[in-house]
Structures are given as C-alpha cells and as structure tokens.
Amino acid sequence: MDLFDNGRHLSRRRLLTLAGGAAVATATGIGFAQSASAASTAAATTGYGIDYSDASLTAGSVASAGYGFVCRYLSWLPNPKVLTLSEAQALTAADLGIVSNWESDGLQDWQSGVPADPYSQGAGHATEAQRQALANGMPSTRPIYFSVDFDLQSSMYSALNSYFDGVASVIGRSRTGAYGGYHVIKELFDNGKITWGWQTYAWSGGSWDSRAQLRQVQNGISVAGHDADLDQAMAADIGQWGGSGGGGTGVILPSWPNITDGMTGPSVQAAQYLLRSHGASITADGQFGADTLAATKSFQSAHGLGVDGQIGPQTWSALIVQVQTGSTGDAVRAAQVELNRFGYGLTVDGTFGSGTDTAARAFQSAHSLGVDGQIGPQTWQMLVGS
C-alpha cells in the first residue's frame, strides 16, 4: 500500500475483499505454510501477510485474521502513516513478523526527470530509513526494502542501479532490498544490486522472479475494515523481525489446481461462478468451453496477469473473494459448490446463511484452519486444491 494518493495502491486498486493466511514457527526460525506439491522446497512456501499504511489497523486484528507478518513503511517525517515504536512493540507482542520498507514517493518523481545524482539520493534515503528502523527496534542485521513504485523504463536502469549502490553504501549490500515489478526486480538481481526482492504483480505481466523472497499478489483487500494489500512469502526468511511470525494456524496448503479448456467438474463450476462475480456473462455449467476461455482471458488481461486462458495459481488468487455470513451472489455460489465436494449438501443459492456458515466452520476445523466461518484465501486454497 502506498503512502501517497498518487502511488501504486490507488492507481491499481482491485476491489476484492480477502482475508487469512498462515505462518508457523520452526526450530530454525520462521517457516510458512507450504504447498503440498513441493513442501520440501523454500520456493514453494505459501505464507501470507499484508502491507498497509493505515496505522489505525491494530496488531490484534491482523493476527486474528490469521496473517503471519506485516510489511510496514518508513518515510520522511512527519508522516502519520509510518511505523512507530509503539506499533512495532504491539506487532511483536502479537507474534507478527515485521518487514521494513522505505517509500517516500516510490521514486515516482523520476517520471518527470531522473535525478542528477541518484547514488546520493539512495544514500540519503537509506540513512533516514535505517535511523527510523533502528529507532523502532529493528535489529541492525535485518534488511530494508526500497520501493520503485511505478513502471520504470529500461532507459532508467543505469540510474536505478546507481540509486541502489547508494543504498548499499549505507546499509550494506547484504541488507539491501527492492520493491517493484518483475523487470525492476530482475534487473537489480541480475546486476547484484540487491539481496532481497519484494515483487508486485503489477507491471509484471504474469512473470515472477524466483529470487524474490516476497510477492505482492493483490491490492485493495480489507482486513478488519481497513484497506491493505496481500503479500505472499516465498522463503522462510523474508527479512522479518519482531515476532516469530506466528499469529496464525500452521497448515500444509495444497497447490492451486490448473483449470484449462475442455475440463469439467465442480472446480470448473466454482471458477465460472467466480468469473461471474467479476462481471463475466457466462453459464456456470461446470464445462470449460469457449465462453469460459474468453472470460478467463478477459479477466487475466484486466488484472495484469499472463493471458493464457488457464486458471492457475495467480488467476485463482485474483479471482477469489472473501465471503462470510450475510454475503450473497456468485462468489457464495462458488464456495457452496466447493463445500459440496466435501459432502456438506448445501443448496447452491448464493446466500451465505447459517447452513453455509456451519459447513465452512466444519471444513476449517477438519483441515486445521482457523475456525471463523470466513472463506478467505487460505480456506479457498484448501477448498479448491484438496
């Protein structure tokens, strides 16, 4: 989430409401819930956290929603949206990991002209970022990510590399990280300018750099009524400090299925209902035909995903919508279809009433998820992938 109205959050808002995530403490530090298909590899790690600039969002609300970590901001002061010592202490007490990120305007001023001395700008940003982070209790060994919050063009790469040289001159290369789209993160990793990467799906065209420890996978979610963005940990160490990163249930999540043209069944029908909830005019008949293919490609294009017509992990993550008691519509029908795969015998009527709530809670209990009756990302992944 951006600190400024002209930043990535408002310009790329996705009006979805998601919740939930998981992280577990391990003997070697923090570990995150993993995909069952590749649970032995760090690259398959699937732990969720959030980033936000609304300092009124409490640590207790974040932890109770099931998230394991937060990414919080540093910037020029005074600024009411940045992390404070008292907030850091509250997050730590809630056992939430904290990831530090510097963002003044995310270098967006570069769009009107690259600075004459980007090295000095990077050093200046890093000096203030480190001062604030240490004052908030961050150990001096932990990294800080620096935001590149626009679709930076290749003509600026030389200046970009110089900026991150300036950052590294203050905090060291081993602690230098970057937030940005695929091409920015790839450029910086390829040139040895960063050790830590936090990639956003925006400006990425569906491509992901496997070296990035963090992924921002969705903007505009709601956590306890507050605006936030959804992040996914792709490694055990994402640069977090503070709490262990617990604050949620530890489970092994199945992989999202890959639904493609020609397939049939309940998960196809659920995907069709979710596409309908985003405005697609298709029949939810459980058959992946030409209309569903076209609707999928249209959805992927509108959400900055790779347009291949296949409903895989990234498309599922963008499609799902949190539903709970009182929700109505096609997203509820999708959840009811998936719950019925597990024998709950619900009427697929699009109304999330007491019967659907009971089924959701029973499913969560049976699969070692947090039992709150809300079908958010983790419950969706368990429903669809199992």
Explain this structure to me?
This protein is α/β, with parallel strands linked by helices and 386 residues long. It has twelve helices and eleven strands. The chain has helices at residues 8-11, 59-64, 85-93, 118-135, 157-171, 182-190, 266-277, 290-302, 313-319, 330-340, 354-366, 377-385; strands at 23-26, 29-32, 47-51, 69-74, 97-102, 144-147, 176-180, 196-200, 214-223, 226-233, 241-242. The strands form two sheets. The chain has an eight-stranded mixed barrel, surrounded by five helices. A two-stranded antiparallel sheet has the order 1-2. The longest helix is centred in the N-terminal third of the chain and has 18 residues, at 118-135. The model is unreliable at 1-46 and 246-250 (pLDDT under 50).
Task: Please mark out the parts with pLDDT under 50 across 5 or more consecutive residues, or reply none.
Answer: 1-46, 246-250
Shape estimate: globular
Helical proportion?
25-40%
| Strand arrangement, major sheet | 3-4-5-6-7-8-9-10
Structural class: alpha/beta
Main β-sheet, in a few words?
8 strands, mixed, barrel
Number-wise, the strands total: 11
The CA-CA distance between the termini, in Å, is 32 Å
Encode the helix/strand succession as letters. Answer: HEEEHEHEHEHEHEEEEHHHHHH
Mean pLDDT: 85
- Tally of alpha and pi helices: 12
Gyration radius from CA atoms, angstroms: 21 Å
The portion of residues forming beta strands comes to 15-25%
